[in-house]
Design goal:
The protein is an alpha+beta fold. The protein has five helices and nine strands. Strands 1-3-2 form a three-stranded antiparallel beta sheet. A three-stranded mixed beta sheet has the order 4-5-6. Helix 2 packs across helix 3 and helix 4 crosses helix 5.
């Protein structure tokens, strides 16, 4: 395979080819020598043509480097290994690559599929690729295995199937693998991508558990509620709806102190009642006051 690399100098062009290909096992030919020109006018870049043998790790690295450059992802590191069974493990680390984990990790699955197609086309044979970003797959597997165990316990307890939220193909495989050996439990997928879901069903012969009864003191169901009491239904008049004339009068307690006095006043303020003896002693030296 052949590819052109351009840089300011020949050394930079060769270094760029080594970084993208992931190895230095290639031959190169100088297409154009660099030139500074006159006072910066007419300067030319160095151009080399590299001939190399298709390498699966090199193809994957070249594709990712170009893709991340267009996505403006700079803070990352690539680690690519190839075994004898044509399995390629690609691990991307760095904060800049966290953007690929969004949307339930769909970016990770999509890149894994694209890498498999690109590498197989460039190398002329099929390679199985495992693409991972910041240990996303390990953390996802632990979380989904815990969810599978919790869901299976619920299905065995209630004898009712449970439908999980939409998942990617990688996530659904984790659920199926985690529950494949559990007795009286079966799993299958329904729906179309990207809304395909896993259904966990009960396959035992025991009868389902009866529904739970409400606790003492809990709110009764709709059918057991006492009739009336619904002011919006019209069964009981409401004073807030303009029915103030139906409101019964407020009862008050009558006391002797509250009754008006209807008798005749027989004394003035400060004077004793007629017929009563006075016990008041006049002040000495004063002039008695007589009312006629």
């Amino acid at each position: 395979m052949e590819k052109l690399y351009t840089a300011k100098t020949l050394e930079e062009a060769l270094e760029l080819a080594q970084q993208e290909l992931g190895h230095d096992e290639f031959s190169h030919e100088v297409v154009e020598m660099p030139s500074k020109g006159f006072l910066g006018i007419g300067a030319k870049m160095a151009v080399i043509k590299v001939t190399y043998t298709a390498n699966p790790a090199g193809c994957a690295r070249e594709y990712l480097v170009g893709l991340f450059s267009r996505m403006k992802i700079t803070d990352y590191e690539l680690n690519i290994t190839v075994d004898e069974e044509k399995n390629i493990a690609i691990q991307v680390t760095g904060e800049g690559a966290n953007v690929l984990q969004r949307s339930r990790g769909e970016g990770v699955d999509a890149l894994q599929l694209l890498l498999s197609l690109v590498v197989s086309k460039e190398c002329g044979e099929y390679y199985k690729i495992s693409f991972n970003v910041n240990d996303y797959k390990e953390r996802t597997k632990e979380r989904l295995e815990a969810l599978a165990a919790k869901t299976a316990a619920q299905v065995l307890r209630q004898h009712r199937r449970v439908t999980l939220q939409p998942m990617t193909s990688f996530q659904r495989r984790i659920i199926h693998s985690a529950l494949v050996d559990i007795k009286d439990i079966s799993t299958h997928s329904i729906g179309e991508d990207p809304n395909r879901r896993v259904v966990v069903s009960y396959t035992g012969t025991e009868a389902p558990m009866p529904p739970r009864k409400p606790r003492d003191g809990s709110r009764p169901s709709e059918g057991n509620r006492r009739p009336g009491g619904n002011r919006n239904g019209g069964k009981k008049p409401s004073y807030r709806d303009g029915n103030r004339d139906r409101r019964p009068p407020r009862k008050t307690e009558e006391t002797t102190d509250s009754k008006p006095f209807a008798g005749e006043i027989t004394r003035l303020p400060g004077e004793k009642l007629s017929g009563a003896k006075s016990t008041t002693t006049p002040v000495s030296g004063g002039t008695p006051f007589n009312m006629k």
